[in-house]
Amino acid sequence: MAKIDADIGSFLWNIFPFAVGLSLIYVFRRNIHSSIKSRRSRLFAWILNRFTTKVNKILRKEKENAFRYLECHREKLGHSLFVLEIGAGPASNFDYYPRGTEIVCLDPNPYFESYVEQNAHKHENIRLSRVVQGFAEEMGDLEDSSFDAVVSTLVMCSVRDPRKALDEVKRVLKPGGIFIFVEHVAAREGSFVNKIQQMMNPVWKTLCDGCNLTRNTASYIKNTGFSDVDIVNFHLKWGFRFLTYFIRPSIYGCAVKGTST
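The line above is the sequence of Methyltransferase type 11 domain-containing protein; the predicted structure tokens follow.
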């Protein structure tokens, strides 16, 4: 009996540190999860801020073409534009805006704000109005019909609900306002690339902060109820072609909110 008691005591003593550790994790699990999420968001902002120079080189022609819609809209209105950029990240698009543009930058990651402000100081062609922390699907703090244009570049692949995000885009646009976009999209259904995208998507979404390889963004835009939609298909020309083959299908274009909407 004494031996059994001793064995039980020894077992309890050995598992005591493990039990304490599990208890602490259980008690502080929310703080631990919050800390991990915060560090991940900070790291993602740091990486993306350094990667944007390369992205701009790769997409320069397509971004220039897309932002010409803004220049034409400015000429049509006869005044400087008030623009919302959703998923602005570190604000890598400031190079492309027409001179005098006033910009509100929206992004859910709070660690982009310092990068946005740094980049704004380098660009005399624009004026940064403010940085808003929030999701494209939930822009309730932004007033209806308040922006001349909304800009999205490589964002719609990552929003949680593209229908809701586009409805919000349309809501905050002034009648006659424009939504311009540059996005990578799902390849043609049934194609070899599309099959690769379907296979890679779960891993890709985990590694790339929710980026979705199989999203048919063009279809979502067309079905949002814009009065006019212009979409141009192209293929991204990344340096590492084998590694990025499945994200090459892309679009850019412009959608117009009707004046009677």
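Note on the example: Strands lie at 82-86, 101-107, 126-133, 147-153, 173-184, 228-235, 249-256. The first strand starts at residue 82 and ends at 86.
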